[in-house]
Each structure stands twice: as C-alpha cells, then as structure tokens.
Amino acid sequence: MTSSGSSRWERRGEQALGALFAAFVALHFFNALFGQFEPLVQRPIFIGFGLGGAFFLHAARASRTGARSGPARAIDIALGLLAFGVCLYVIVNRHRFSDIMVQYGPLDKAAGLLAVVLTLEAARRVIGWFLPLLALCAVIYFYFGYDLIDGGWRPPLVSSRTAVETFYSSTTGIFGYLADVGARIIVIYVFLGALLLSTGATDAFMKMATWIAGRSYGGPAKVCALSSAMFGTVTGSAVANVMATGSVTIPTMKRLRYPPAFAGAVEAVASSAGQLTPPVMGAGAFIMAEFLNIPYTHIAVAAIGPAFLYYLAVWLGVDLYARRTGLQPTPKDEMPGPADFLAPDKSIPLFLPIAAMTYLLFNGYTPSYAGAGAIIVLVLACAAVRPFGQAAREQGVLACWAALARDIYQGMVEAGRALVMIAALLACAAIVVKVLTATGAGVKISSLLFSVSDRGLIVALLLAAVLSIVLGMDVPTTASYVLAAAIAAPSLVRLGLPELTAHLFVFYYAILSAITPPVCASVYAAAALAGASFWKVAGRALVLAGAVYVVPFLFVFRPGILAQGGTGQIVLDMGVASAAIFAVSVGMAGWLRGQLSPVGRGLFLVTAGLLFYAAPMADVVGILALVGLLAWRFLRKEPETVRSSG
C-alpha cells in the first residue's frame, strides 16, 4: 500500500475513533437527562469503552509515530475488540448472572479471566506500571494467598466461581461502585470541562487572571497561579492543567527573564490543587461523596477553606520570591482590559453554565443532572451570543453556528479521550479495593497503622500523609485517593476524626503527591515545558509549596476551616490559619521588606508553630508575636533592597 493510501486509512481510523468517543459521551449525556440503564448494562458500557478505547488509542498513537509495526497495531485493535466483547458478554448474560443459582461454565470463567487481564493491560498503557502491578499482586493474594501465606494475613480460600463473581459477573469488582460513579457523574463533568475549553474558556481564564494579578510583583507567576486555579476546577487533572495553562504561562515568564526552574515550579504547584477547588472538583471528590454517602455540595463547601489556604500559600510564596529577586509585573502593553473577558460573547458562555450548575447542585438536583443542565446552558448561551461577536460579523451567523458545532464535537471527542484513562483507572483501582474489602486486608492494614501510631493522632496523621503521597506516586490523584481512603482513612476515623475530615485529609495529600519527589507527574510536565532540570523544578516547588503541606493538619485541629461550627468558629479558624500560612511563607522565603537573617526566619517559623497549635493561649501569643514581628519589619530604618533574579 502506498504511503498516501496508508495515510488515508489512518485518517479514517482517527475519524472513526473520534466518532466513537463522541457517541459514547452523547449516550451518557442522554442517560444523565433521562435516566440510567440497569447497572449491569450501564457500567459494562462505561468500562468496556475505557478498556477498548485504551487499546485503540495506543494503536492510533503508534500509527501516527510509526513506533510499532502493522501486526502490533492489529494486535492492539484485536485487544480493544476483546475488551468490548467481554463487557458485552456481561450485558447479554446479566439476567443469568443475577440468578443466585447460576452455574458458571468454562466460557464464563474464561471471560472473567480475560476481563481482569485486559483491565490490567489497558491501565498499564494509559497510567503506567504502578497501579496495574499493585492490582496484579492483589489478584494473586486473593486467589492464591490461602495456599501461599500462613498466619493472620492468610486470606480465605476462594473457588474459581467466587473469583469470577467477585471481579466480573456482579456489581462488585470491575463493575462496582467506582464504575457507577464514573458512568453516572464523572462522564458528565469531564464533558462539561472539555466543552468549556473547546468553546474558548482557556483564553478567557488567562485574560481574567492577567487583569486581576498581572500588575503586582511577580505578576506573570501570580497569573499562572490564578489561572491554574480557575482552569483546574474545570479539568480536575493536574497534568492536563499544567499542559493547558503552562504552555502559555511558562513561556511568558521565561520571556520576562523569570528563572525557568521557578516558572516550572509555579505552574506545577498551582495546577495540582485545581482538583481541590470548588465548584467543579476532580473525579476524586465525586467518589468521596459516594464513599461517605453525603451530597457532593457538602464536600464542595468543606473544600473552600483548604483550597483558599493552598492558593494563599502559593500567592505569598510567589510574591515574596518576586520581591526578593526583583521580578517585575506584566508589561502594560500586554495587560488585557475587562472587555477582553467580560464581553457578552466571552463571559456569558463561561460563567452562566458554572452558575447554573452551582444553583442546581445547591437546590437538591443530582450531580449528573446538574452537570447535564450546565452543558445545555453552555450550548444555548454560545448559540445565542456568538452571532453578536466579531467572528459572526465577518463570516455570518450560519458560519458562526457551524464553527460552534465543530467546537462541540471537538469537546465531545476530547472528553472521550480523557474518559479512556479514567475508566481504565477506575476498573484497575476497583480490583485493588475489592481485594482489600473481600479479604479483610484493608482492615488489617488500617489496624496496623492504628497500632504503629500507638493510638496517637499526630503520628497516625503523619503515617496517613506519607502513605497517601506514596500511593500517589506515578498514578493519578483519583486512584491514590481511592487506595488511601480504603487503607488510611479508617484508622483516622477510629482515632476520633469525623469521616469527612479524614477523607479530605488523605485526598489533600493524594493531590500533593503530584508535586512531591521523586515521582511527581506535574513537576515532570512543567519541567519539560520550562526546559529546566527536573530536580531544580522539584526543589523550587517544594520551597514554594512548603506551607501547603501543613494545611491538612490545620483543618484537622481547626474544624472551622472545613466550614464546621458556627460563623465565629469559621472566621476565627480561617483567620488564625491564614496568619500561620503567612508566617511560615515569610520564614521559608527569608524576605519581608528586606532580607531576613537566620534568626529572623526562625522567629517567623516559631510564630507559625504557635499559630498551628490549636489552643486559645497559643493563638493569643502567636498573634501578638506576629504583630510584633510585622512592626519590627515595617518600622525598621534600613532600606529595602532587591537582589538580582539571575
């Protein structure tokens, strides 16, 4: 076959794959509005698409790059079809599988085994080795552990029938509650985020952030932090956030002579907390709502305080570094005006859908219906306001609507691509979680953490934080949170923490795993965009984010940060926590109206320690000490100096 003929078939394959993604998203949008199919139909559709799509995407990527031969790509396509097939097999046999007296034949067992193998391989292709290897160890422990292990960690003896039923032919395992959350809720919010971006939200976010933050010291870096917060609440993915906003902010900072390592660090740190930022948080927040059986709005409200403190720490870190090194604001000729993002054709499609979604969520509608309603509002708003924009005046209304249709289709395709990874991840994580619950291993690990901590809350919190970060290495936040919630959160609850506090604690550190060396996906992505050494970017990120690592300990001991308690409690806890973040940021930066000596830095850090300690006397002493230190820095006679940023 000629190269032109080969290219034509590759284009057709890409188009067919895009149509498959769009159809998948459209089906789930329909379900969100008019109701879901029965569980053993809806969930296998979702998982089958994710597993099959992972193999198809791998084949398409290899075809574009020429990395694999024709037979290898044919194997990828065959594996994708098999993945669809084993999920379709569940749908066809769902009534038989639901019968408690069902007899599993060789074909049923082969399909179950194949489903597990394909899940592990599909996950390996889209998220790397760590989680699939963990899932493989879990399967070996579940099925062979009785023969291999003695003592308290010995799992129950299971038959092949039990294994098939556990992992494959029921609404547990691969088609369990994680698949349910993905099919009902996550699909819709990934689609909403992709649609916002395909219809121009990225540009509007960047211009609004520049207008707000660009005039101050370190303006471009603050723009990066602010735009990443706004963008990340839509995407729910740290790496996607880095790649989307970092492709604009990092070159801008480098052009203005910001050190490349600093530019990459700011982007990595700022992008990671988008999943913590309401109203649209990442997939992990929706899974948390299912874990705790509470409305998603409760989690969104509780997350406002931690998200504010996270970005306050980033903002202060950037500001103090900028003042210390003389980083300048955004040039005046590059500053946008309010009309650049508040014009009706830009602001209405951006803000109205998010406002509609927030209204529906807080008025008792299900998250899936609220997300679908926001999508409808977005499409109608774009159709209504685009005819009044510059493009419509130049090209005509029909051409404008045709461009909108292409944007919507592109958003559906991009949502489908993102959902491939999410579906494969959830299926793989479900295997691990099911083994932890079915064998009692999760309870045993939690009890071990409980005993190691000697029933002391601080030690238990430290162990849970480390475990959440370690589990998050080389896997997305959603997977690390699911694993940490099954292992670490129960031990914290046993020590007296409210369930929501315990889960937000491990969720926060699962997010921080994206910027914690040695394996930190956000830092890798930012370092690549900045053209800087990974270790330099990682080091800068740790200094910049130093204060955020203590925020979860603050909301454990100051429940007002999670909007718990009365108004006075919330105001007091947020005020003291903000003061603590300021003190530790100054101590780590070593700058406040001039260079701080080691003794001065130590005084600010000691003051921060007093404010972290949740006791009335510590609060009073800490606030008085901070006021005294601020008076010393602002009333001193020495002139403020600025060092070179080179």
Structural features, described:
The chain is mostly helical and 646 residues long. Among the domains are: 36-169, no CATH class; 179-297 and 318-435, no CATH class; 559-637, no CATH class. The protein is 76% helix and 0% strand. The chain is built from 30 helices and no strands. The protein has helices spanning 3-34, 39-65, 70-92, 94-98, 106-127, 130-148, 160-167, 177-198, 201-213, 219-235, 238-255, 260-272, 283-292, 296-325, 339-342, 344-361, 367-385, 390-395, 397-438, 441-452, 457-471, 477-487, 489-494, 499-512, 521-530, 534-544, 551-557, 567-589, 598-612, 616-635. Helix 10 (219-235) runs antiparallel to helix 11 and helix 14 runs parallel beside helix 28. The termini are far apart.
In brief:
The protein is mainly α.
Helix content: over 70%
Largest sheet: none
Number of strand segments: 0
In terms of structural class, how would the helical and strand content be classed?
A: mainly alpha
Considering the chains and any ligands shown, give keywords for the structure.
0% strand; 646 residues; 76% helix; globular
